[in-house]
Amino acid sequence: MKDKNAWNPYLAGALSGVVSISSIYFVGKYFGASTTFVRTTGMVEQLFSPERVAKMPYFIKELPVIDWQWMFVIGIAIGSFIAAIGSGDFRIQLIPNRWKSKFGDGRKKRSLIAFIGGTIAMFGARLADGCPSGHGLSGSLQLSVSGYIALICFFIGGLISANWLYKGGK
Amino acid sequence: MELLYGLITGVLFGFFLQRGHVLRYDKQIGALLLQDMTIIKFMLSHIAVAMIGVYFLYDLDLVQLSLKPTILGGVVIGALLFGLGWGLLGYCPGTSLGAVGEGRLDALWGIVGMLVGAGIYAEVFPYLKTTVLTWGDYGKITVPQVLGVNHWGVIIPLLICMFFFFRWLEKKGL
Fold this sequence. Notes:
heterodimer, A: 170 residues, mainly alpha, 9 helices
């Protein structure tokens, strides 16, 4: 699969690995992303019922505060924006190409499936205690057993639903 | 200060994710349909480089590991569920933010869904904690520990496997 205007994925991945090493060396922080969603949800719920949030065990475990990882996740959006603008890749797109060629232009269906997918994915990531960043990258690079089990199960689940969506009848 | 480091690290990571075109829905689904292995190449290259660096620094006592416990019930069921959702959404938690940065706004729906998913999990956590999250708890274990070998005894064979896997991918044009 040749992809014009992209860097070689091995090079981009290797450089991101160097960023990972620096972060671990200088700050002792391993990459991760999904805990940030818990903290953000906690912050939103706090606006409505602070007493309730203060008593919920999961929000006591993962406090609704802005921490290193929260800033890291925001940084990903900014870094991607800079790279996309700089390379001419930036484009406002509401329906991905592959989706469009299979399901057409309708925004409702894409939004609904993305929403449902996101809900299931995050529930699963919290149960597994990590996502492709926390388990897949950080876990695997530390040779953690949980990282490799998670990585394999992420792909098994993804193979099932993506193939169901694209190979099955419309 | 720690927050600033987080932001800088995120910006750099987001930059390389975008330059590798790893953030795209088409790339993520492409991998799950076994048609385009860009994200696999990116992930494994990241793991290969960081694994060598981190264990090198670990041997010099300059870094500490931060392992997640291997609780089979949580990891297997949770990761399978994650995968099912990921195949529908086409972005993972980190890449969804990066996708928005590129202008791929369908990822916003995924982000809203993920916030809702986190909220549902927080509601049922007390119940899961005494059930699923107690099934098959092996604690914080690593592959070299389980095999009873030095970590380089795992890293070097793993790097050789990755090398041949990459060569095979390139030969197949994936």
